[in-house]
């Protein structure tokens, strides 16, 4: 993977500009997942209900939009992980991992485009990637303490298995089938659960 420096921090946006940017990200994420990466920036603008200039101002190239969508998805997963930590549920690890794998299956086109462009999210958004790994580690510690997860598995191994799940889902051509991708994810999660 390329060791490109992380994207510079965006300047603080006005509330309306922030809402527009978030709407563009949500719309792009949905369109990329359902219609593929061929959808134009102008079509994303139209469906997001903003002008083309708004999209082009925030994302001058499609690759910038791919990266922003992927980072936004990571931030959503971090928020979900933080909420799951607050529940105290020892099985919350499996909930977060299932969501991470589903997210990867839904957004395989974006992730593939980033790989092709040699973008590594861990390099592009190291703080967000570290937060997600920390959430997984905290949930794994809780699952270990409750006897819900195999005692010999580490957080790094769990993250490697999630990355492997994306490859397995892609290999099985299961990206467009929630049932098939969820089944593959469940097979992987079963291997992480403690045995009686």
TrEMBL record:
DNA-binding region: 40-59
A single MF term (Gene Ontology): transcription cis-regulatory region binding
Alphabetically ordered keywords of this record: DNA-binding, Transcription, Transcription regulation
SUPFAM superfamilies linked: Homeodomain-like, Tetracyclin repressor-like, C-terminal domain
Signal peptide residues on this chain, from the entry's feature table: none
Domain of life per record: Bacteria
Alphabetical list of InterPro entries matching this protein: DNA-bd_HTH_TetR-type_CS, Homeodomain-like_sf, HTH-type_TetR-like_transc_reg, HTH_TetR, Tet_transcr_reg_TetR-rel_C_sf, TetR_SbtR-like_C
The HTH tetR-type domain, residue ranges: 18-77
PANTHER family to which the protein is assigned, alphabetical: HTH-TYPE TRANSCRIPTIONAL REGULATOR BETI, HTH-TYPE TRANSCRIPTIONAL REGULATOR RUTR
Name of the molecule in the record: TetR/AcrR family transcriptional regulator
